[in-house]
Amino acid sequence: MFPQGNLVRRKRWCRVIGEAGVINGSRIFIRGVTITYLLYLDDSGSVRNQKEEHFVLAGLILHENSLFWINKRMNELAGEISNQAPETVEFHASEIYCPRGKEPWETMTRENRVQTQKEVLKIIANESKRSGACILAAVINKKENTETDPMKTAFEDLCSRFDKYIARIHKRDGNNKEKGLIIIDKSEAYESVLQDMMIEFRRKGTKWNERLNSIPEVPLFVNSKTSRPIQAADHIAYSVFRRYERGDAQYFDIIQSCFDKNGPQIYGLSHITKNKDCTCPSCLSRQMREYLKKQQS
Fold first, then answer.
1. How many H-runs (helices) and E-runs (strands) does the chain carry?
2. Who contacts 117 (Cβ-Cβ below 8 Å, separation ≥6)?
3. 55, 182, 252, 257 - which has most CB atoms within 10 Å?
4. Domain 32-296 adopts which CATH fold?
5. Are 221 and 186 within 8 A, CB to CB?
6. Which of 124, 178, 123, 138 is nearest to 268 (CA)?
7. pTM to 2 decimal places
8. pLDDT value at residue 289
9. How buried is 47 (Cβ within 10 angstroms: 0-12 exposed, 13-18 middle, 19+ buried)?
10. What CA dihedral angle connects 278, 284, 285 and 290, to 10 degrees?
């Protein structure tokens, strides 16, 4: 996953993982288990903003071998924007959309900023075609789900989906040794909360009585400025949020085909709503599954 000579990056990961994890060459081991799949997560929308109807937690599942390519493509894009200091360019979707003085976005035209957002999403879509990388998203209608914390609800939903994604690969390949790790944009408010939730998921199971056997460690939290995949996850979350909150699908449409799926059945997009008449891709897929179950019974 990491080039053998990239000691700075490897040392940083050793610090993040701590005593439980070891990097051997280009592989990550946690508690003696090989980590093959990485789920990078970020959110869009505010948990507490009552003016917004939706909250989104979304991200990108990458095989370890895909990390080099996603970093390479996004660094190349950063170089086109700032060839003098591409490492200073952070692809933060909401700041690109509305810079509020943030450079290099403030001095770019609105058209160029929109195109930059779309270029990031095209990198994700192209990597999905190249390697099979896929995306997950949980959309919470906050006004219909007032008794639960949107972040907690979305996190539990995506943990379950990530675990099932890896389990399907195990079943397909006949190999149950590969495991996954969740990496999230740094959050002072939720870091300990989500880590405690993961411990409970492994000990007692989720609300669906699932033990999440494919995720052996609590989520890691990193600064988005230092992680291109987290920046990619930010754009995924923002695209999904714009589609559900504003009805603006120009970004969502670029990555819609990348959601984890099996044929017409979409597993990677979850819309938690009480609106039975919703015709979004997630709700239509769920209605199709329910219809097929009734036909088979």
1. 9, 10
2. 93, 96, 97, 235, 238, 251
3. 55
4. Nucleotidyltransferase; domain 5 (3.30.420)
5. yes
6. 138
7. 0.89
8. 84
9. middle
10. 90
